[in-house]
Design goal:
Number of helices: 11
Largest sheet: none
Distance between the termini: 8 Å
Structural class: mainly alpha
Helix content: over 70%
Number of strands: 0
Amino acid sequence: MNNGDFEESVGQSFISHLVELRDRLLKVILCVLLIFIGLAYYANEIYSILAGPLLQHLPKNSTMIAIEVASPFFTPFKLAFIAAIFISVPVILYQFWAFVAPGLYKHEQRLVFPLLIASTLLFYTGVAFAYFVVFPLIFRFLTAAAPVGVTVMTDISQYLDFVLAIFFAFGVCFEIPIFTIVLVWTGFISSDDLAEKRPYVIVGVFVVAMFLTPPDALSQTLLAIPMWMLFEIGLLCSRLFVHKTEEDDDNLPVRLDAVHKHEE
């Protein structure tokens, strides 16, 4: 194969990848839009469910308020759109996987696909943990901490921003096992080194929890302890997965030689 044919082949391959990427992005956008259309009719009901943990702990005769003129209309639709993206995460990850999988070795495919599934489930678990466990405790503390003479009446838009920030924080924090496995798998650090740094990790998770939760020990502990346990799970899984990957890597030079011969 001469240089001209090789460059033409590379150019066609690049264009085909761009076309495939465009098609997959369009599928993701279409999925989000379809789900959003289905949820838009129930936007107010969805917001009421999200506001439930706060409404249960508001003082008697106290309600949520809308400071901006258009916020009673736009805030529920904003939540419906974000919920549509949230529900579409499995489709988004599948499209990502289908795009990158052909370029991965078999042992990489066997590791990356389970990580994608596990990361999705862990993110959902983190959000559910925040809603069912953390929110009731946080809002009980915040409403009880109001000074005498101050009526707690939260703006619906600011409440949504606060809740989404907490959801994202807990969802990301619950990805600690994935981060741990990837760090060990890429060779950035070994599992033994991570185990030796366990005391620093424990201090680190409490520091992170301090910034992500209200200033009370209970809320901080509710985030810090799961993060620590997830780190231990990630450390255990990294030893199992990386050991299996290293066994598969024994066949890697053979495949690389085959690729070089094919290019020649």
